[in-house]
Write a structure and sequence with these properties.
alpha/beta
Length: 314
C-alpha cells in the first residue's frame, strides 16, 4: 500500500524491535510466550465500541461470539486466531473480532481451539472443523459464512478449506489471511531476506514452532503447509502482509498459487508494517485502514445482510 508510514507505526516497530524481539530471541520459551500474550490481553484489553460479546460452546469447542449491538443476523465470520499454534485465545483477539463483526454486519465466532505442545496437530484443525460444521448445523448458509485467520490462524483457515474439500463439505463464501503462515518448510526468500528488517519475528524460532505443533510429520503436508495443497475450487481469497515480515513470501506465494489454480485472489503488501499489525487498531491508523479493506472485501463476497447503522471501523 502507498502513502507515508504513520508515527504510531514507527513507534510500534521500535517497541517490537527493541523490547519484544530480543526477549523472544533470548528465551524462546513457547509456554512462557502463551502466558505473556494472555497477560498482555488482560492488562491492555481492546473492546471495540457498540459490540456485544458472549461466551459459547460450539461443536463441543469453547468460543466467543461477537456482534454489533445493531446486528440483525444473517452473516457469520469464523475467525481463527494466531499465536504460533501455542498461544493466543479469543481473549487476545477481541479487538479485531469485534471490529470485523461491526464492519461486516456479522457475528464473529472465535474458537478457543486446543494449543500445542499439549495438543499437537491435528487438534487445532479438528476443533476448527467441528466449529465450522456446527455453524452449518445452526443453518448458517455457506454463502453468508466466511473464514478469517491471522498468522497460524491463517494456516488453519486455509488448511480448513482443504479439509472441507476433502470431506465434500460446503465451502464458505470467502477467506481472508492476515500475515498467513502457510509454509512450514520456511522456504520463502523473505525468511532470510527480511531477517534483519522484521521488527518482531525471528526465523530461528520456526523449528521450535514446528516441533511443538507437528513433530515427526512432513512439513509439506498440505494440512500443515496449505501453500502446497490443491487450491483449485476455493472461494475468493484476500491476503494482507507486511512488506518487512519474514512471512511476506508466504502470502505472496500463496497468492500466486491461488491465482494459478484459478481462484479469485487479492494480495496487499503494506510497507513497513509488522506481523499482524491489524491487531493494533486501537491506536494504529494503518490497522484501521487494513481492517476497512478486509470489511469491503467480505461485504462484496458474502450474501447481503442488514448491517444496521454501525458499519464504520474505528
Amino acid at each position: 500500500m502507498d502513502g507515508p508510514v504513520s508515527a504510531q507505526a514507527r513507534m510500534l516497530n521500535l517497541v517490537l524491535r527493541f523490547a519484544v524481539k530480543p526477549r523472544l530471541e533470548r528465551d524462546p520459551d513457547l509456554i512462557r510466550l502463551r502466558r505473556e500474550v494472555d497477560a498482555m490481553a488482560r492488562v491492555a484489553p481492546d473492546f471495540p465500541r457498540n459490540v456485544v460479546r458472549r461466551p459459547a460452546m460450539i461443536g463441543g469447542v469453547a468460543a466467543e461470539r461477537h456482534a454489533a449491538t445493531a446486528h440483525a443476523g444473517g452473516r457469520t465470520l469464523l475467525y481463527l486466531h494466531g499465536g504460533a499454534f501455542v498461544a493466543g485465545s479469543p481473549r487476545t483477539h477481541r479487538g479485531i473480532a469485534g471490529r470485523l463483526a461491526r464492519g461486516v454486519g456479522a457475528e464473529t465466532v472465535v474458537p478457543d481451539y486446543r494449543l500445542a505442545p499439549e495438543h499437537p496437530f491435528p487438534a487445532a484443525l479438528d476443533d476448527a472443523l467441528a466449529v465450522y460444521e456446527a455453524l452449518l448445523q445452526e443453518c448458517v448458509a455457506p454463502g453468508a459464512l466466511a473464514l478469517v485467520g491471522d498468522s497460524a490462524g491463517g494456516n488453519l483457515a486455509f488448511a480448513l478449506l482443504l479439509r472441507l474439500k476433502e470431506e465434500g463439505l460446503p465451502l464458505p463464501a470467502a477467506a481472508v489471511g492476515l500475515s498467513p503462515f502457510v509454509d512450514m518448510t520456511g522456504s520463502g526468500d523473505s525468511m532470510s531476506g527480511n531477517a534483519g528488517l522484521d521488527p518482531f519475528l525471528d526465523a530461528a524460532g520456526l523449528p521450535l514452532v514446528f516441533e511443538a505443533y507437528a513433530a515427526g510429520r512432513d512439513p509439506r503436508d498440505p494440512l500443515l503447509s496449505p501453500l502446497f495443497g490443491d487450491l483449485a475450487g476455493l472461494p475468493p481469497c484476500f491476503l494482507q502482509c507486511g512488506g518487512s515480515e519474514i512471512l511476506r513470501d508466504d502470502a505472496v506465494r500463496l497468492h500466486g498459487a491461488l491465482a494459478a489454480a484459478g481462484v479469485a485472489a487479492k494480495l496487499e503488501v503494506w510497507p513497513e508494517m509488522p506481523h499482524v499489525w491489524q491487531a493494533f487498531a486501537r491506536f494504529l491508523p494503518e490497522a484501521r485502514a487494513a481492517i476497512a479493506r478486509v470489511v469491503a472485501f467480505l461485504d462484496a463476497n458474502m450474501a447481503p445482510a442488514d448491517k444496521g447503522a454501525l458499519a464504520a471501523v474505528a
